[in-house]
Amino acid sequence: MSGSSIGTLFRVTTFGESHGKAVGAIVDGCPAGIEVSEADIQTQLTRRRPGQSDVSTPRNEADQVIILSGTESGKTLGTPIGLLVNNRDQRPGDYTEMSQVPRPSHADFTYQMKYGTRASSGGGRSSARETIGRVAAGAIAEKILQEWYGTEIVAWVSSAGEHDAPDLRNTGLTREQVDGNIMRCPDAASAEAMIESVVSARDAGDSMGGIVTCECRGVPAGLGEPVFEKLEAKLAQAMMSIPATKGFEIGSGFAGVRMKGSEHNDPFVQKGDHLGTVTNHSGGIQGGISNGESIVFQIAFKPPATISQAQSTATFEGEDTVLEAKGRHDPCVVNRAIPIVETMAALVLMDMALRQKVRET
Hints:
Elements: E1 5-6, E2 11-16, E3 22-28, H1 38-48, E4 65-69, E5 71-72, E6 75-76, E7 81-86, H2 108-115, H3 131-149, E8 152-160, E9 163-164, H4 175-178, H5 188-203, E10 210-217, H6 231-240, E11 245-250, H7 261-264, E12 268-271, E13 274-277, E14 285-286, E15 289-290, E16 295-301, E17 311-314, E18 320-323, H8 334-360
Antiparallel strand pairs: 1-2, 2-3, 3-7, 4-7, 5-6, 8-9, 8-10, 10-16, 11-16, 12-13, 14-15, 17-18
Helix pairs in contact: 1-3, 1-8, 3-8, 6-8
């Protein structure tokens, strides 16, 4: 098992290293007859790409996607879809000094221990550049979910460093509102404070973390499988596979432990032609299966490990040394993580939707 695939029926395998020739994905299990173009995929890739602002890495990549296979005349064939994005601005030479020094809290040491070798520049498969394949594949899943159910998936930055935005869940946020500033925090005052902190950390050669909130609206009831394939478990797995993630909570999350059952329970009520809940402390999932309410979860991202400050550490041979990392790195990843979170959620929901369709036939 390579660990580079996700999904059962809608299965995605990503490939490529940060400073290799290209990155991409293979999508297997996409239904035939779906209208998909490179333009449909490019929107999310453009939101994810580097070099967009002062709060992201200055690496300059257009991240233009190429559909290699699986479509004809703008429609899917039901065969594997090959997605490719070429790396144009790779600079492996930036990592020469780091080839013998595992970066603190990065994957250099663990990959070396696991494989006996590693990509010597840019983190290889552990780099966030690997997520390009996920975003491209997830954009296809998003399009299908929208067509089938009217599903909308919107994520935003709700915290960065010491700055927390007001709770904006259940307010009907749009992606246009989220993209209204470079921090992708819809609250303008909070965004301004966050940007100032990120720029300050960057100028000091440091980094900072944050929290992304995601809301999946229009998800039909019945998605998810009992026990080991619970929908929240698959979402947690997907989100925790994103580089730099350190925490996941759904619905009331950890705050729910401070509530009584009488406060936390979500009473049912008739909503038009269907049954729904008055509150949504469950986060749209009960017993591991979607209940038709919005699925709401949060993901914590740590400060990026690669910083330009001098750090006392050790070489692979155990000799004391001082590392001052070079290269181009994000001082904070949460704003660029938004399309990654959205498309990873789409991949999970799409896979579960296909599994439910099989059950219903």
